[in-house]
Specification:
Blueprint lengths: L7 H5 L4 E3 L9 E5 L1 H7 L8 H8 L11 E3 L3 E3 L2 E3 L7 E8 L5 E7 L14 E2 H16 L6 E13 L3 E11 L5 H10 L2 H15 L9 H22 L2 E2 L21 E2 L23 H23 L3 H10 L1 H16 L9 H15 L3 H12 L4 H6 L7 H11 L6 H9 L9 H12 L4 H10 L30
Antiparallel strand pairs: 1-3, 2-9, 4-5, 6-7, 7-10, 8-10, 9-10, 11-12
Helix pairs in contact: 4-16, 4-17, 5-8, 6-8, 7-8, 7-9, 7-10, 8-9, 11-14, 12-15, 16-17
Amino acid sequence: MDFAFDNGFHAAMEGFYAPAEAARPSVPALLAFNQALAERLGLAVGRAKDAQLVRVFSGMELPQGANPLAFAYAGHQFGHFSSQLGDGRALLLGEVIAPDGARFDIQLKGSGPTAFSRNGDGKAAIGPVLREYLVSEAMAAMGVPTTRSLAAVATGDLVQREQAHPGAVLTRVASSHIRVGTFQFFAAHFGVEHVTQLSDYTIHRHFPELVEATNPHLALLDRVVGLQCELVGHWLGIGFIHGVMNTDNVAVSGETLDYGPCAFMDRFAVNTVFSSIDANGRYAYGRQPQIMHWNMARFAEALLPAIHAVDPADVDRAKAIVDAIPDRFRDIWHHRMRAKLGLGQADEADGRLIDALFGELEQHGVDFTSFFRALAQLLRGDGAMLQALLPDAEAMAPWIADWWAQLEREAIAPLERADAMDAVNPLYIPRNHQVEAALEAAEAGDLAPWTALLEVVQNPYVLRPAWQDYAQPAPADAGPYTTFCGT
């Protein structure tokens, strides 16, 4: 297999990483391989046999041209600063340039200890690996910026957590693995020269158009803030809860990074938390915009030495960028919600309609994902789906009337509007009870439920009668759902 590595970070950023090597697995076996993504990356794996894929994507065999390394980074974890974290169970094999010129990292996750592992074993269990593969591919299919999953390989070894689980390695693809925590590490330990070097590299790699800005580092802050506002708007729009929005899990590329205790909302509740370690609800669904704002303030702090070195007056401009985040996010969020509700043009009444909707959804315990598809069906003259979601026929009737009045401001045919809504509102998501059942089966050796669910969530918008069960809300008697970090 020829990866044609072009390892710019390894060459240009010595001192920003530690060399690493993968642990040798006992009896590796291929669980999943993403052929479509391999083609997107331009990887020459078309004729590779499963045995070859297994050797590379388990870490057993180092592909030619690889320069394996572990990134150094710090991070605020649940608000508390850890000055040294780093890739404790992952290593970057190298970078490839896709046929369209885009650059991507190829990283093994769960491949064994590195210089940053502290007391950890550097391994991953099959459940978290297959969860990340499934959810990241679902996110990509819904158009959410995200890391991707190229392969999952069972190692044949047991990983000890609360109990022993089968081990696995995930091959993760990202436009880079540079995090807010990466900037924090070098700001905390080395100062302005290293921060400037990291910022310059990030700009050249991700945002080359910013090179000519009066203060490129200030422009970088502004660009990353915009990407994070867009990203969290995406999350809220599909009911996604990241679960661990620590600064070391915030990619400056604007991609969703690290699918640990993540999950999707079933019945709407603004304070929904799924993570077993988020006892105080810091990363609840409705707090994600505020945490994004907080994380971007930490990014600004880390960038300030580089910003100040160009022009001390730009420190105030950086503060203004951070202070403007709530308004910037609100505009993005309202734009996204208008699309979900079939509203074509902005109106001053939209904000009130949107805010009132979430109170109604919570009051009546409505399934978040199904609700927006049901509204589109209502436009087609079929109210059965909506009535099935509500406790009685009059529930939400005033809000529905207000929504309808907003629609009538615009000369858009109902069927055209319904089709536009269906194009942005997924019908199939990785529903928690289905994900859990698929992961339990996979750990027991049966991949069929997981493979079937993967196919469904990779095609989230178009109704298929054979997939009717996958579109159903969680059972009414489903208890609280809890996810775990998987480290």
